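Usage

Read records sequentially. Each one opens with the input sequence:
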Amino acid sequence: MKGALNPRRADSPTPVLIVTTLVCTLTPFMSSAVNVALPNIGAEFGMDAVDLGWVVNAFFLACAVMLVVFGRLADILGKIKIFNLGVIMFGMGSLLCAISLSAGLFIAGRLIQGVGGSMTIGTGLAALTAAYPPEERGRVLGINAAAVYFGLSIGPTIGGFLTTYWGWRSNFYLVFGLLLFSYIMTIRYLNPDEAEARDEKFDHVGSLLYVPTLTAFLYGFSNFLSPHSVPILAAGVAGLVAFIFWERRFPDPLIDLRIFKSNRPFIMSNLATLVNYAAVYAVTLLLSLYFQYNRGLAPEMAGLLLGVTPAAQVVFAPLAGRWSDRMDSTKLASLGLGITTLGLVLLCLFDEETPILYFVLCLAINGAGYGIFSSPNMNSIMSSASRKWYGVASSLMVTSRQVGCVLSTAITMVIFSIFIGHVELTAAQHGSLALSAKTAFIIFACLNLVAVFLSLARGKSRPATEPTA
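and closes with the structure output:
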């Protein structure tokens, strides 16, 4: 990747791996730390169960709708430039969350964090893919995935500890400090890279259609029980039709639809990612609330237990990444999804007498399965796109993740609305919370089974060469 490295280290892509992985670790760290702090945040701002869902969803909604836009800008202006701006934006959002005095300001901070995250996640992955040859991508993407899961694993533990002893705001101050350090590292070690599509025009009209269209779909689904959801979803459908019509005619579209043409591995891998995230993300949110409200665990203990899943991912993701360089990614990824489905089925069987160790076992199975799925799936997606489309391809992949997270949280919010309603969580809602969790786990297990079949449908995948179109 010409120009992406500091001239003193231009002979090695290692700095790209180190810096991008460092920054990409902070997003999952923040997400998992917030999940543990939810009861304390809700108590301070007087939020009900559905409002707490928006604490989570505000970030993922903003991140999901902006990822492709910034991915395209990264292809035109340079990945590192957008990456640097994202670090600044994420830091500003973190600081606003830390100093906010109202629920509205706090949610605004989460939205700004989401925009910043959309600028760093996709561009960091694209820069990493461009820096390494195809035969090494499985290994480095596995390392990157393991770092992400490391952030997820330490987020609940450190977040719970900080929330217990220094208050929930300390989580955001910590992330702000780490992002400041990351920005200094980025400026020192990464120079602006060569934009692969620098001679192409940015699709302003496509962007103005894409962002509100995806927002309408995700917001409408998140408020599925509201009478306003139907017209919002209808507007999303109309926007999608207009977007596709425009993209097929604009010479330099926001999303070049040719990336999907005769590209089954790319399509099915992204669909499997979306459905899998829709099935697994809100498990942490639900168990965080259940452990602290129903079982009376302190935030640091709840966080320690929830760290089991990403800890297992840290172990298995690098191994799966290496395996995907030498064997069929489809079988490997599908095996991982099957293991995760088993973990979700086991979670459906809990009751108020179920020992904590049972939950630990289920979380470990989920983590191992997803660790085996993620790296081969990521390798399959990036290896099925040409170098010219790395920015958009990586952004579409991460968009699939973020949309899955939004849908997972939205499903949980709908279940909360049905079984709990718009009331603050107290001892009177313990039974309803447990019923909500069990219902969600059943739905999630069914969804993840669908993801298994989507993964298998991509066909045999053995990435070894650079795609050319």
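Summary fields computed downstream for this record:
- The chain has two domains: 7-202+252-456, 203-251.
- Residues 134-166 form the longest helix (33 residues).
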